[in-house]
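Hey,
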Amino acid sequence: MSPISFKDSFLDLALYISVMFLIREIYFSNVGFLTNGLFWSLSTLVVASWRMKVRGVSWKDLGLHKPESYKKTLLISGGILAVTLVSIVVFHLIKDQIPFLVAPESSPEDSGSKFGDLKGNWLLFFSIIPLVLVQSFLEELLDRGFLMNWFEQLFSKTSFATILAVLVQAVIFGFRHSHDLSERSITVALIGLTMGTAYMVFGRNLWPLIIAHGVLNTISMVGRVN
């Protein structure tokens, strides 16, 4: 990926983040939460793709390319998933000991009703899981692929900039899912932190993250059914 100037990176990020949050003010009540979520993600995808085209960057440049080894990709995905699950479990074990914490999972979006009545409803589960997987795919493109690389360019693409990009995107990822300091926002931020770190460690390949994210969300949905 060719260097992008501070001014161009800043303008792109300001536009992208503004759309990312403002688009959520649009909510179509006659369709489900997942459909609205996909609308929000696809809208920000359009903005990201537009700015990438202006800067001469493709999704392939950001890691959406054919894996060199499918076996290695799956093994890395499994490792990312395991680390993510461990980090979530550890957080929930120690959360009551953290002095500044936190509201419980109180976001309106966090209630089970946003997916409908999933308890014991496998038909509903199989009808919405494709949307969940598409959303997982889009979040990795946008949060790890676009946001991290643009923040890294903004901070001059040094080692410090890379660390800062990982942290900033994780905070935004968590806050976007629950606009407060809550169990949900911190849990999601931990997911973003793990995925962002893995993106850098494993050669900026998006596919292991996409697979791990999809499996993680599937596990979460199965938990709502059982």
